Amino acid sequence: MDQSDPVPGLFHLSMGAPFLFLCPNTGLRVQATDNGDEPVSQKGTRYLAVECLACRGFHFVDPATGKLMSDSNKK
Ligand SMILES: [Zn+2]
């Protein structure tokens, strides 16, 4: 009946899930999107190469935890 209203609550979840990570160069929290790029596996963890909006560089981030690959290496 109502042709003008689109169905609410319908989102394309497969398009990419946004997540936050901490940029090691600027210390800022940066939002990135898991757009389905092929992740890099390392010891059961999947890292995504994301372009950082804060420092314009690339970081390897685990979209599930927001942790950087370099974080797990040190300490
Ligand atoms: Zn950065």
Structure in words:
Helices cover 7% and strands 39% of the residues. The protein has 75 residues and is mainly beta. Strand 1 (17-22) and strand 2 form a beta hairpin. The termini are far apart. It is built from 1 helix and 6 strands. The protein has one helix at 69-73; strands spanning 17-22, 29-34, 40-42, 45-51, 58-62, 67-68. The longest helix is centred in the last third of the chain and has 5 residues, at 69-73. The protein has one domain (14-70). The chain binds zinc ion. The site of zinc ion (ZN) has 8 residues, from loops.
Task: For this entry, give a set of tags.
75 residues; two-stranded antiparallel ribbon; binds zinc ion
Summarize the helix and strand pattern as letters: EEEEEEH
In the predicted model, the low-confidence regions spanning at least 5 consecutive residues are none
Whole-Å distance between the termini? 62 Å
Relative helix content: under 10%
**Order of strands across the biggest sheet?**
3-4-5-6
Strand portion: 35-45%
Mean pLDDT: 80
Number of helices: 1
Number of domains: 1
Radius of gyration, in angstroms, nearest whole number? 16 Å
Helical/strand content category? mainly beta
Oligomer: single chain
> How many beta-strand elements?
6
